[in-house]
Design a protein that fits this description.
mainly alpha, Helix Hairpins, 116 residues
Length: 116
């Protein structure tokens, strides 16, 4: 079953409501939880080389997938609590990024758009 972000948000809302957790789901708390989960995701890569980060074994890859899921779940919950259409925001941000990083300027470079 593949949920849309809206369906996922509804399922998360129901999950939290059934456990009386909505009282803890302020934007600040959800942002904090998201950062904690992002840190747990990064922890899996902390001491790996670039090459090693591309070739995780199945067990490590599953652990990374679950951390990525945690990040996504908190992000979706936060967008729901704040009334933000995450897909719309992402699409608008991609347009902004395309303007900030035109192909002819940014191709093959890791420099920021304001760096020489």
């Amino acid at each position: 079953m593949t949920d849309t972000l809206h369906q996922l948000a509804q399922r998360l809302d129901q999950f939290a409501q059934e456990r009386d957790w909505k009282q803890f789901h302020s934007p600040k708390n959800l942002a904090s939880a998201l950062v904690v989960e992002a840190g747990e995701l990064l922890e899996h890569f902390q001491w790996l080389t670039e090459a090693q980060s591309h070739s995780l074994d199945a067990e490590k890859k599953q652990a990374v997938a679950f951390e990525m899921a945690d990040v996504l779940l908190y992000l979706v919950q936060m967008s729901s609590v704040m009334g933000i259409d995450l897909m719309d925001a992402a699409q608008r941000k991609m347009v902004i990024n395309a303007e900030r990083f035109p192909v002819e300027v940014g191709t093959g470079s890791s420099k920021k758009c304001d760096e020489a």
